[in-house]
Amino acid sequence: MPTVNFAGRATTSADSTWGRRVIPDSQLFYVVSGSAELIIGEKTYGIRSGECVHYGPECPHELFAARGTDYYSIHFHWRHESTAPVHPGLSIRAADREESAGRPLRPAPDIPPYGPTALPTHFTVSGLEPVLTKIVKEYELEQPGYGAALRGLMTQTVTDIFRQLLNVRAASSVSGGKIEPAIAAMREEPGRNWTVTELAAMCGYHPIHFSKLFKEEIGLLPKQYVIGERIKQAKRALLQGEKIEALAERLGFTSIHYFSHRFKKLTGLTPTEFRMQGKDA
Fold it and tell me: 73, 6 in Cβ contact below 8 A?
C-alpha cells in the first residue's frame, strides 16, 4: 500500500548537493542523464544514466550531482493507510557528522516462488521513465482521486523493479555472466549495426543459443538492448544540444522518424519534447 508524498523531475547544475540529511520517508532517485553520488556511512554509490538509488527514513546520507543531471525524485511510504501525500520537506532534518550512519532501508517482500527479495540500495532498471512521468503529472495536477492513482502507479513501479531484479538474478545464476563481452561491446559502440552472429562469436556461442541466453538473462533481445543503449546516449546528447538529424544518423537509426518513434516508446516523450523539458526543468 505505497503512498507517494512527493514526485518531481528536474535538472540540476554541476556540484549541486542535498547536504547530510535524514528524510522522514523513503526516496527513489532515478538518473535520466548525467551522474550523481549517494554517500551512506563509508559507502559511496555512483549513479549513472538508467540507474536508481533507494534509501529510507532515519538513515543519514549525502546526495550530490557531480555535473548537470536530469533526474526523477519520488518520496513515498512503503505502507500507509491513507493515499493523501504528506510533503516530506518540513520533516527533513540536517544530520551532523557525529550522528550514526545507520543502514539503508532494504525492504524484502515475500515474492512467491522466489521468497523474500531485498531491494538493493543501488540498481539498474530499464523502462521506468513512462511510469515515473505519469507519477509526476498526477502529483502536480492533483486531479480528483489522484492519491489513489499515485498508489496504483507506485505499485506498478515497484513491481517493474522487482521483476527486472529477479529476472537478472535468476538468469545470472544459470549463465554465470557469459554474455558480458557482448554487453560491453554494445555499450561501447551502440551506433554500430551489430549482428547476432558477431555478438554470439564474442561469447563463443551459436547465434540461436546466444539469443536465447541473452533474452533469459537480460529480458530483452540483443536488438532491443542495443536500442536502449542508443536512447541512453541520445538523451545525453539532446540535452547537450546535438541536432536530432545528426544524432539519429550517428546512433545508427535508419531515419529520424524511426529514431523519434523508438525514443518516445522508451521515454514517453519525443526527442524535441525531451530536450525542451530538460531546458525548462
Answer: yes
